[in-house]
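Cross-posted from the bioinformatics board.
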Amino acid sequence: MSSRRATRSRGIPLLLVAPIAGAGALLGVPLVALIARAPWGELARELSSPEVLTALRLSLVCSLSATALSTLLGVPLAWLLARVDFPGRRLLRALVMLPMILPPVVGGVALLLAFGRRGLLGAWLDRAFDVQLPFTLAGAVLAETFVALPFLVIAAEAGFRQVDARLEQAAATLGATRLRVFARVTLPLAAPALAAGAALCWARALGEFGATITFAGNLPGRTQTLPLAVYIALETHPEAAFAMSLVLLGVAIALLVALRENWMGR
Amino acid sequence: MSLEAEIGVQLGRFALEVAFRVGDGELLALVGPNGAGKSTALFAVAGLVPLARGRIALGGAVLDDPEAGVFVPPEARDIGVVFQDGRLFPHLSALENVAFGLRARGVPRADARARARGWLERMGLAPLAHARAATLSGGEARKVALARALAIEPRALLLDEPFASLDEDATLDVRDALRRHLAAFAGPCLLVTHDPDDTRMLGARTLRLHAGAACEESR
């Protein structure tokens, strides 16, 4: 009976039907195609081949390590951006967000120039510690972290911002040091946002392709993660590529559902 | 252990200049309209708003003196604050809220909880010990906030509009709790309120503020 209901029931303006249907088809049909074309009968066999299992294990190790590293490096950074007013804060935030919009392959090239054997820092790492990052597992973790870190920082910063600073003041009057205020008040209250950020960060790391292949290469068993394996298998053994794609799609959907149900409220 | 304050604070265009002294076991009420600077004065004593000019000392120890370059941060002042809206930690139980300050002082967990339970019992809130702070009623939350501030055995107690936005029954209840506990509190106590009833009921000396300055003092 309300006017809002009346507006809603008037339906979609005719002019918008075509673009909306187009968008729906563009987003929906590929998913349907993947699900329809997937080798459902052979799924278990395709996914249990040694190549796929190796890529799957590598992907889990790399993406979880990248998430852990992002959390370690990103949470303090997010706190700084949310709570401390300093000159250059906007610039720092822009720098943090850059990998989200930078083509990943460019990120990979930049990582090579920084951490490659003759790179800005890489040459020193090579000489002083005999540490080489390109084309290693650690390099794959680094590349994934580079690309995924912004997702964590942005979510965590929003989480810290939404924590009432007046509660932090109250904690201080009770004798809590800044570290204790952070650990006992700020962090627990920002935890849902941090969890959501970590989940998004992990998803981004899991799907990382461009920066990883550029910086860490595509060495089966060492740096060939699931997305790289999908790309290669598409040429040699498409059924395996379909099966692996289905796994990655399933993870993405599960994550989306979890984010909606548990961490983001309504 | 008296509290001596000469407060000069500049917040944008708002300037606050007020001086007072509160003796041991004494209750001073800062009264006045909204925007008079009552809460700002209280926050300066707590260390949440730094002085631009003046000096704050408690029991002879200087807490804030910009000219001498002294500023003791709030966590090192040992001053209990009951905030206007309670400011309980919503993710903790009533018991954990009251134990928070003791834990921050390094009191072992079991000991801190036992002492916090004692405070809740004295407030008549023992059955709510494990209730989440966010689920408490306004009056209950205010009493938990009072217990939380008293549990650290502060050297001074600050109350910022402790009855604000409570209904009539809750106001009487909290006022009663406050009167009982203030009688037992040995240090100086500062109360910010806009309600003359509060000061009369609690037998406070009053200092009236208007537009950032003291304008009248009375018993």
